[in-house]
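Reopening this one. Same input as before:
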Amino acid sequence: GPWTRPRHVDATLGAIDPAPFWDDDGRAWLVYALAQSRAGRSNLILIKELDATGERTVGPARTLIDANHLPPALTSIGPMPWLY
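Same output, byte for byte:
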């Protein structure tokens, strides 16, 4: 559809590099990383489901990648959901 103004869809502290993702079944998701300076943790790529309107997240975050267990990663940023 036409371009709309950006919306604040999630209040996760320190979330960076958000990327929406639509699954094959039509469900929408928000994939993002965390900034150590604001979240107190990093090296995580997380995902949360979006509601049917795509205007807010629902439910808990799920960890897709925990790079703290994948040495020698220094930081994980810029999730690209089409690679998952």
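So the earlier flakiness isn't reproducible anymore. For the record, The CA atoms of residues 19 and 80 lie 7 Å apart.
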